[in-house]
Amino acid sequence: YISNRYLKPYAVYNEKMKSDHEERSMSLIQLDEAIKNKEFQVYYQPIYDAQTEKIVSAEALVRWHSPTNGVILPSKFIPALEESGYITILDTYVYQSVQEFLEKECQDIPIKISMNLSRMDLMNQNIMNLILENERNQHINYEVTESAYSSLSVNANDFLSTLHQRGNMILMDDFGSGVSSLSTIRDFEFDIIKIDMGFVRNIGYSQSNDSILASLIEMIHRLEMKVVAEGVETKEQLDFLKEHGCDFIQGFYFSKPLIKNDFKKLISN
Ligand code: C2E
Ligand code: MG
Ligand code: MG
Ligand code: MG
Question: What range does the record give for the signal peptide (predicted)?
Fold first, then answer.
């Protein structure tokens, strides 16, 4: 016998929860409209070679310029789009914008751009086919988080291996932040591991943090992969990372994500 008292929490669905949900979610029509009105803009955050301090690539990061609410960061709208699966529509748009930027504006500039693939994209055959069938995307790299990777289907695994074999780099994003399982980086040949900014933030504050970070860099190198440190904000963090052989640096110390034209200016010099 289970008392009603214990079942109750699961049955409760009040008006407040309903409105919270509606606030976060976006209908397909709203999303299409926003894309059509060019409210979503792709920003580019440069990624630097740690030794030469030259820009080698950039990460595409989307922002929503809402006519009513101003500039909105991904954490405010991406979770809801992932829940509904509509993130794939947005990521298709991001993909096309990145490709157009590379083709029309970066013809003579040797730059790679990496974009984020959501867990939902890796379950969607349409976006995977679009990317695979497109012969002109050799300068685009793909970032996948641990959690997205750990639930990968056979199709998605084939998709990532095919890209990797063609020379599109596959990056593991936010490494070390989630339910990190080392088997993920043992079982798939990632090209680059991006160490989560949580470790970078704690450089110089915790001996055990610094030890983990130094060992992570060494371990990744032994696996013949490269390392990006994310969220580098200070000279002290940069020096530590350089000293321990980190390959690439991304963070506000060098640059925030920039609108297309500013990024273009930066790489044209
Ligand atoms: P992420 O892929 O791990 O991207 C890195 C995030 O760190 C970005 O946040 C970037 O602005 C921020 N960042 C970079 N350097 C620094 C720093 O020095 N200090 C601090 N405090 N932050 C720094 P952003 O742009 O808000 O994006 C958050 C997350 O949203 C991304 O994390 C990614 O998971 C997701 N996201 C962004 N754009 C897209 C997209 O086009 N498609 C998909 N599927 N996800 C996206
Ligand atoms: Mg990323
Ligand atoms: Mg990241
Ligand atoms: Mg992240």
Answer: none
Residue 223 to residues 107, 115, 241: CA-CA distances in angstroms? 33, 23, 18
Q: Is the CB of 118 under 6 A from ligand 1?
A: yes
Cα–Cα distance list, 48 to 51, 177, 179, 214, 227 (Å): 9, 22, 28, 19, 12
For ligand 1, atom 33, the nearest C-alpha belongs to 116
Residue 215 Cβ inside 6 Å of ligand 1? The answer reads no
The model's pTM is 0.92
CB distance 140 to 168 below 8 Å: yes
- Stretch 49-75: mean pLDDT, rounded? 96
Ligand 1 binding pocket mutation candidate from 40, 44, 61 (most atoms within 8 A of CB): 61
How much is the average pLDDT of 213-232?
97
ipTM over 0.95: yes
Centroid of ligand 2 to alpha carbon of 265 (angstroms)? 23
